[in-house]
Amino acid sequence: MNSGPESRRERFHNRDYRRDFLKYKAALIRAAAMAKRHGISHREPPFQVGAAAMSIEPGLPDGEYAVYTGYNFTPTPVKRRGRDKRCAERNVFEAALEKGATLIPAMVTVASEKHTGDKTRAHDALHPCQDCRDMMRELRDKGILPGDGIICSVNDSKEISSGKFAEEQMSVDELLALYDDMDAEQPKLDFGANF
Description:
The protein is an alpha/beta fold. The chain has one domain (5-189): Cytidine Deaminase, domain 2, CATH 3.40.140. Helix content is 33%, strand content 24%. It has five helices and seven strands. The strands form two sheets. Strands 3-2-5-6-7 form a five-stranded mixed β-sheet. The chain has a two-stranded parallel ribbon with strand order 1-4. It is globular, with a radius of gyration of 16 Å.
């Protein structure tokens, strides 16, 4: 049996990763919340975002996932774009890719804010910025981030019931379609050889 990346992707797509995500969702939210504590921000109060992603990669037994975490790093108020902008989402995707992730079916972010100051369509929780959405489009086009993969944004400052925080969960395709018209107004970034 071929065990290369294509056959692993095919076997993975035959799995119910939405069910698997639900199984691990609470742990992913906790991991993203813990990563958020390390976020570095020049803003007052600090703007901190944590992210956790589940991935499959070579060397993992079938049915198991690797989990990666990342946080934002913006120590000075300099305008950054592309590779220089160190959002939690970019950092978690790059960590997974560095280790050879062939598929990233789900990502969770945790933040206390609903927006970065940019235009947004978020209701209750922070959505990825345009640079991160451009990166997500590129990863989707390369088959690493599936269109039906899960993006879950959690607002840990808005408790809706005991121990339950406001969240917005959608597929990668739904998130990107939500912003297609806004993102079309801005120049696209090419993330090149990083993936």
